[in-house]
Write a structure and sequence with these properties.
This protein is an alpha/beta fold. 42% of the residues lie in helices and 15% in strands.
Length: 398
């Protein structure tokens, strides 16, 4: 039987859609305390003291790096495999990015090779928790403590994940989150600072209070765009909407299909910083209520992939980090030729995603382990679709 499987699903149920629609024509006329309530809920979920919400994750990172007095150095150590906006924010704040190697199968900083990149010039180590798993934090924390440098986390892809029982985002000095489409918790764009440190909280809060709030028109445009994207990723919406154009592009112009989902790198602009809108905050509260359930479903799908695909030597499956309870925002695979495999999957109705991260250093070494792409893994998938993905991959590589 032929199945149609979307590459991702925007996490919205009927109650969340009704909440958005009910406010859409009222602009941003939700209670004044909606943002504060979301911040309180987000902090409570992580057992943190403080949360400050922004209109984008890059602004959350900017708030941490621009706080005066707490970073003593000129360099920020980053994962060499990262999203393109991260080093741009680092440079905009006057720091030099220093790229440290990542483990080829956990995709996170390799703690065994990290310390040589931490010097007397290092101000902080920025740890990303990729694809729903925690980085290997015990040795990373030990290195930061030994060298006397700050430790900043970016758990944008791993909201709700834990490391040795503690929520990611609470393992360093502070954390920055992105809440864009495709994240396990999303607010049609947005960002969050999470910290127990009073000075970081006050600085982030002052940035928000001194910025211009979004207009009702901006909020309506954002919500309308988000709802359109959501509709096209529902089971019915994907079949009657994007699937046929995607299928044809896959057959005749696959590069153009990939280009539809690429975000062009751009310089960071701190002047675009705004508060999170109240409508987004109300959506964020509902997303938090459903986060653990949706994460469990992602984990179930990932565990099925790990089990059913384990004996296919042509696939290099992601490594599970010891002590990590993952949330599997994505399921990365490494293969010799990702484009060819993705075309073969799409010809059978399975949409997958090209690698959207960048190897900023050690690129030849990174590529030697295979090309990266992502299998669909989202709460909108049925058991039959998961079984179908596994069956087709086994048929291709039998």
């Amino acid at each position: 039987m032929f199945h149609v499987v979307a590459r991702h699903n925007i996490n919205l149920d009927a109650a969340e859609v009704a909440e958005i629609l009910g406010q859409l024509f009222a602009g941003d006329a939700i209670g004044e305390d909606a943002v504060a309530a979301f911040e309180d809920d987000f902090a409570a979920y992580h057992l943190a003291e403080h949360t400050v919400a922004f209109n984008a994750g890059r602004h959350a990172l900017y708030a941490l790096l621009s706080c005066p007095g707490w970073l003593k150095g000129r360099e920020i150590v980053l994962p060499a495999y990262s999203f393109h906006s991260i080093p741009e924010v680092v440079k905009a704040c006057g720091f030099t990015p220093v790229f440290a190697p990542c483990d080829p199968l956990s995709y996170a900083l390799d703690p065994g090779r990290l310390e040589e990149f931490v010097t007397e010039c290092t101000a902080a180590i920025l740890v990303e928790h990729p694809f729903g798993q925690s980085a290997e934090m015990d040795p990373i924390c030990a290195i930061a403590q030994k060298q006397g440098v700050a430790l900043i986390e970016d758990p944008s892809q791993s909201i709700g994940a834990k490391y040795r029982g503690k929520a990611v985002g609470m393992l360093g000095d502070a954390a920055c989150f992105s809440l864009v489409h495709g994240k396990n918790l999303m607010t049609f764009g947005g960002g969050v600072v999470l910290t127990d440190r009073e000075n970081l909280y006050r600085h982030a809060l002052n940035l928000v209070l001194s910025s211009t709030p979004p207009t009702g028109r901006q909020v309506r445009r954002l919500a309308s765009s988000g709802l359109r994207n959501w509709l096209m990723t529902t089971a019915l919406g994907y079949r009657v909407g994007p699937f046929v154009p995607f299928y044809l592009l896959n057959a005749f112009d696959p590069r153009r299909l990939d280009a539809l989902f690429e975000e062009a790198p751009r310089l960071y602009d701190p002047h675009s910083l705004q508060p999170l809108s109240r409508l987004q905050a109300a959506l964020g509260r509902k997303q938090l209520e459903r986060l653990d359930r949706r994460n469990r479903r992602r984990r179930e799908i990932a565990e099925r992939y790990l089990h059913d695909l384990a004996d296919l030597d042509a696939l290099r499956l992601p490594k599970e980090v010891e002590g990590s309870e993952g949330t599997w925002n994505s399921f990365p695979l490494r293969v010799p030729d990702a484009r060819t495999l993705r075309r073969r999957l799409m010809a059978r109705g399975i949409d997958s995603r090209a690698d959207y991260m960048t190897a900023f250093a050690f690129a030849d070494e990174w590529k030697s382990y295979g090309e990266v792409f992502y299998l669909p893994n989202h709460p909108g998938m049925s058991d039959a679709q998961v079984e179908y993905v596994c069956r087709i991959l086994r048929k291709i590589f039998r």
